[in-house]
Amino acid sequence: MAAHLKKRVYEEFTKVVQQQQEEIATKKLRLTKPSKSAALHIDLCKATSPADALQYLLQFARKPVEAESVEGVVRILLEHYYKENDPSVRLKIASLLGLLSKTTGFSPDCIMDDAINILQNEKSHQVLAQLLDTLLAIGTKLPENQAIQMRLVDVACQHLTDTSHGVRNKCLQLLGNLGSLEKSITKDAEGLATRDVQKIIGDYFSDQDPRVRTAAIKAMLQLHERGLKLHQTIYNQACKLLSDDYEQVRSAAVQLIWVVSQLYPESIVPIPSSNEEIRLVDDAFGKICHMVSDGSWVVRVQAAKLLGSMEQVSSHFLEQTLDKKLMSDLRRKRTAHERAKELYSSGEFSSGRKWGDDAPKEEVDTGAVNLIESGACGAFVHGLEDEMYEVRIAAVEALCMLAQSSPSFAEKCLDFLVDMFNDEIEEVRLQSIHTMRKISNNITLREDQLDTVLAVLEDSSRDIREALHELLCCTNVSTKEGIHLALVELLKNLTKYPTDRDSIWKCLKFLGSRHPTLVLPLVPELLSTHPFFDTAEPDMDDPAYIAVLVLIFNAAKTCPTMPALFSDHTFRHYAYLRDSLSHLVPALRLPGRKLVSSAVSPSIISQEDPSQQFLQQSLERVYTLQHLDPQGAQELLEFTIRDLQRLGELQSELAGVADFSATYLRCQLLLIKALQEKLWNVAAPLYLKQSDLASAAAKQIMEETYKMEFMYSGVENKQVVIIHHMRLQAKALQLIVTARTTRGLDPLFGMCEKFLQEVDFFQRYFITDLPHLQDSFVDKLLDLMPRLMTSKPAEVVKILQTTLRQSAFLHLPLPEQIHKASATIIEPAGESDNPLRFTSGLVVALDVDATLEHVQDPQNTVKIQVLYPDGQAQLIHPKPADFRNPGPGRHRLITQVYLSHTAWTEPCQVEVRLLLSYNSSARIPKCPWMEGGEVSPQVETSIEGTIPFSKPVKVYIMPKPARR
Amino acid sequence: MLDCGMHMGFNDDRRFPDFSYITQNGRLTDFLDCVIISHFHLDHCGALPYFSEMVGYDGPIYMTHPTQAICPILLEDYRKIAVDKKGEANFFTSQMIKDCMKKVVAVHLHQTVQVDDELEIKAYYAGHVLGAAMFQIKVGSESVVYTGDYNMTPDRHLGAAWIDKCRPNLLITESTYATTIRDSKRCRERDFLKKVHETVERGGKVLIPVFALGRAQELCILLETFWERMNLKVPIYFSTGLTEKANHYYKLFIPWTNQKIRKTFVQRNMFEFKHIKAFDRAFADNPGPMVVFATPGMLHAGQSLQIFRKWAGNEKNMVIMPGYCVQGTVGHKILSGQRKLEMEGRQVLEVKMQVEYMSFSAHADAKGIMQLVGQAEPESVLLVHGEAKKMEFLKQKIEQELRVSCYMPANGETVTLPTSLSIPVGISLGLLKQEMAQGLLPEAKKPRLLHGTLIMKDSNFRLVSSEQALKELGLAEHQLRFTCRVHLHDTRKEQETALRVYSHLKSILKDHCVQHLPDGSVTVESILIQAAAPSEDPGTKVLLVSWTYQDEELGSFLTSLLKKGLPQALS
């Protein structure tokens, strides 16, 4: 029953399902209600030994109990509780009471008195603890009832002095969950002893049992979570607990200190053994930093994690965390980081280290050295060097969060992050690269740091390399040598791992556009031009050469002097690349060349406005088509669709909107065309064949509406209404066509009913939006609804036909942000002429690498389809772990697809494509009608389907017959 | 006895410890309960066969499993060099090493071993080298922790030392780096890898002279993983011999290594090197880049020196010294910048190759030592295994910052530590429960007063309630009553005085049971108060207060209260 109850709690989120459950429950109820409690009663009476009784109870617990019969069951259980001598049975009964009181629709206040009553007489500690747990369940069920809460808190306080830690634990839990702080005046006046819950819980911070201490701290945290403000006095108590012997206590104490430090960041606390005072948040920061070198790694992880969220700490303390004074034989030594910095600033780079290069310089005053710094000193240095990678990851994350809020700290922590690039665990390396990317706008990399960063480019892990490319995209480099170094390393990377081609090109694109002035002096060298001699023309298909060109062209975009340095073939190559890799090569203003797009206007803002306007205008024009004759309307729609499509191609920012509206218009166009068909004018039996066009149109509209609904991210409710409306029209069309082309009424009857149901359904879903649908198809339809309900199918069809013709074209409001989901399969490239050979009956693994844009929740929606030449289709669900998220709105799928087939006589191509699966119930907005609903909305909820959203790629395969 | 090492610097009797400190005559076995070896380095176990076989000791020798496995290999190697190469006589033999190893008892981490009735030992992980351990030695409630050598920062193949809050009376810790705080290990590793990588990419050869065990394995792992990550194909060689055997044990003792190796060994044992192959003499002349690990570490003899001579002439090549070099060795000379070396036979070797130094040492630095002391929370600390001057500094720091007494005895010096011996006393459950019932709030850290009877019987201490004690000892209970007279100025009758006393006490002692008995006396709990009129003076009344020994506290309080007199204004 526990599982059942739990399930029911979760189900509260989806109301539809819950309702069905209830329904089933009520049906069942009638059958079982009299027998349920009675059966239990009989069972328990039958039980001769405690073991038997326990068995019955266990069996009983497996079945669900309905809200109505809970009360009866509880009574029976209590009755047996009083009679029972065996503590284990009582324990089970107590736990059952707790579970039962959680049943939805059952108000447990009636059993509270009994529960408290039996609590007073109970002797067994375990049963006591369980009863308190039951009370907790009751108390949490009734959060509004102040009196009950007070009473329960009283009960908990009474049992706090129990000798068993279990009972004390539960009491504290109860206090944490139910105790309130508000000492309202009325209560004082009533003379009710209001208890200071915090004080009571605080007393148990020094309990003898570590489990109770932990429970006390947890209860305190619970109070905080429930929104009660903790007293500042707790801080000192919690600080004492940091040196507790038990790790769970320390771990909880660290949390508590963090909570208090967030509550009272600015209050002042004295430093012990001195007269100074510091801010509480600084003090807490120091204490938590100290816990980073705790003996238990659980505490270390906890402490390192919490450090990241302490943003109010003063920068002085923050910077201490990276500080570690080195000394050797009592003389001050510089860290390798400091040395590297110095070498760099003195202009002498990478001279290698000499024996004794790190020889200590100045003498250290022995009195001044403090080996255990009280404060934050070196916390991150320790955390990043920890032996457990969990701690290291937590430290890197914390570093990231703190660096994001403080640029000066970001600058300082750079050296440490760069060091983490060489960690032995890949996860840590990856995490630190991501962290670096996140803070990269605050920093500029020094050359020696860049050197270390670039060394990682040779890593054999693809994730690491790609993360690093992403990092380089947004890094600031300070010198031209740095750019050169980066380029050289990236090219090295390219030769070693040719598959990284796209990622490297993209990286160089950003590198070039970020640092035009640094690239400028490098151009002659990079293009290997010579002032006097013509040099050989490089091979245009060489990816490395393309990489160099991408860097240069992107730099040239904002650096007008650069094209002067190009040689003739460079211009030719530019033209070629501008066409073939237009996403990587920007439009340049080149001397003597006319360039369409750059000639328009260089500034982006003024460029956007007219196209936006154009979009608006063309859409507005379309909405006047109501007044046009059918022919004109069709033409207008066709032109507008064409315009929109072209606009989408030109303006990538508006592509989503343009496509979306174009699709909608296309639906309308199809509808109009279908209605213009001649078949309507002719007697039905004659036009069996020609109805193909109309029914095909209906089908296509359906498909398009599904695309509109599910392929675009950012679609809002008002668009969904319009889309559904369009779909409804398509369904009406379908119905009419079928009515015209089929003989016999029977199938028509069912279809009619179904259609009417759907109209009803539409009304229910979008009841709030109906006023916007003036004059529309559905509006008119709803007016005629009473007539429709009663009329015969033939009549319905007739009505539908006229309404469909008369109804107005609905205006599609444009959503703010809309993006079309798209996918590109990078690998397999589909260019290979060599078939993939494998033995038939066995499998071959095909590496698939694709980028997905604007796909929500790709783990659940994206599927891979493989189409074999024999028409057999295979649908593959990639593992959730195969999706990576390199940036907002973008996903990357790197997975393997297993192919297999029987033997073929010759190689043939299979098609691989990506599909977006949808489930119409996912998008349906929740409406108030559900609560009172009597109709189960199964008609439309579970329409599932897939939309192909990538170009198919052909893979040449050849299953060979197995050799015997 | 903790550790049984040898001194590297001497070749005479001074190389082994002077066991006559333990006893002048008689067998060592009678004086020692056990010997504990912390790890396999020769300065911690080198004298073991001499001690057990030549001096004579038959008791148990405790060490961890990896130490037990690797220790005999090193001892045998040491014996070979001493006897076969230097031709020493009167040295222990192979058979002695075997006999000695038979006395070894291996222990697991955190396993409590009962050596005899009183002594128990427990091993903790110490990092440093494979199988290095710290030992807690406990007798009754007194304990000592001996650290051996340890490392508080993890490295590529071992984790960090860890100890629980065992609060020993004494912590004996090494203090090699008493005055050093080290830089992050990552910088050094990165430098090392970068240098090797650059040289190899240039087509140069890299020579890394190492000692066979310990750092060698760390560097191997470092290079191996780097090669793996970077997909490099350049060969790495390891000079054969001792190392292969040792590597075998590294493969076997996975639980003693660090988190990364422990987690990944199911897929692949990190010590099964993919890129590192055995070295052959002929390979040194092969063209193209390579990396070679060769023994010994200071370039003073053997294979490393041979390779060095072959490669020194080419500036593309590089030698990386990963550790300390003793003065006089080739290693020290080149590190101090000498470019022309005189070899035997008056040859002059010009060193054109690059020389790099990189310290990979696995001892805890000053901060690490303090951290361990902080973790274990000892009553006092004793520093060993370091230089006196440096220890002085650390001692001062420990006393200042941790407020723990610290000692640093010289060789042969005895330190006496005062310990507060705690004597366990058994308490009867009844008494405890009775006491618990009285206590209102749990106060873990505060002492509490408790009445009971201590029974000492056959060195066995028990605390029981007095009734039980009487019963057990068969004694009758004696009532001990105190009586006291208090003079009061009161002209009224005795009855009335008693009544006034009653109402007065009733108003003050609210928590106690105050009764007025029909015979005119007043009782407070078991204390009896009677008023009597002495014949000579009618103006004064005498109050007779009587209480038992058990109520002493309340009784004396009452008398002092009554001596102050009764309040005047009474109705």
Automatic annotation (TrEMBL), chain A:
Superkingdom of origin organism: Eukaryota
Predominant subcellular localization, coarse grouping: cytoplasm
InterPro entries, alphabetized: ARM-like, ARM-type_fold, INTS4_8HBD, INTS4_C
One GO CC term on file: cytoplasm
Protein's GO biological process: snRNA processing
Residue intervals passing through the bilayer: none
Location of the protein in the cell: Cytoplasm; Nucleus
A Pfam family this chain is assigned to: INTS4_C
Domain Integrator complex subunit 4/Protein SIEL C-terminal Ig-like: 824-961
Domain spans labelled INTS4 8 helical bundle: 612-815
Similarity comment text for this entry: Belongs to the Integrator subunit 4 family.
The protein, known as: Integrator complex subunit 4
Organism: Sapajus apella (Brown-capped capuchin)
Name of encoding gene: INTS4
UniProtKB/TrEMBL annotation, chain B:
Keywords assigned: Cytoplasm, Hydrolase, Metal-binding, Nucleus, Zinc
Cofactor annotation: Zn(2+)
Pfam family, one: Lactamase_B_6
SUPFAM superfamilies registered for this protein in UniProt: Metallo-hydrolase/oxidoreductase (SSF56281)
Gene Ontology molecular function, alphabetical: hydrolase activity; metal ion binding; RNA endonuclease activity
Metallo-beta-lactamase domain boundaries: 17-204
Gene3D superfamilies for this protein: 3.40.50.10890, Ribonuclease Z/Hydroxyacylglutathione hydrolase-like
Keyword Cell membrane: no
Organism domain of life: Eukaryota
Subcellular location(s) of the protein: Cytoplasm; Nucleus
Domain Beta-Casp stretches: 216-334
Primary location: cytoplasm
A single Gene Ontology CC term: nucleus
GO BP annotations listed: snRNA processing
Subunit and interaction comment: Component of the Integrator complex, composed of core subunits INTS1, INTS2, INTS3, INTS4, INTS5, INTS6, INTS7, INTS8, INTS9/RC74, INTS10, INTS11/CPSF3L, INTS12, INTS13, INTS14 and INTS15. The core complex associates with protein phosphatase 2A subunits PPP2CA and PPP2R1A, to form the Integrator-PP2A (INTAC) complex. INTS11 is part of the RNA endonuclease subcomplex, composed of INTS4, INTS9, INTS11 and inositol hexakisphosphate (InsP6). Interacts with WDR73; interaction is required for the assembly of the RNA endonuclease subcomplex in the cytoplasm.
Family classification: Belongs to the metallo-beta-lactamase superfamily. RNA-metabolizing metallo-beta-lactamase-like family. INTS11 subfamily.
Protein's recorded name: Integrator complex subunit 11
Organism: Sapajus apella (Brown-capped capuchin)
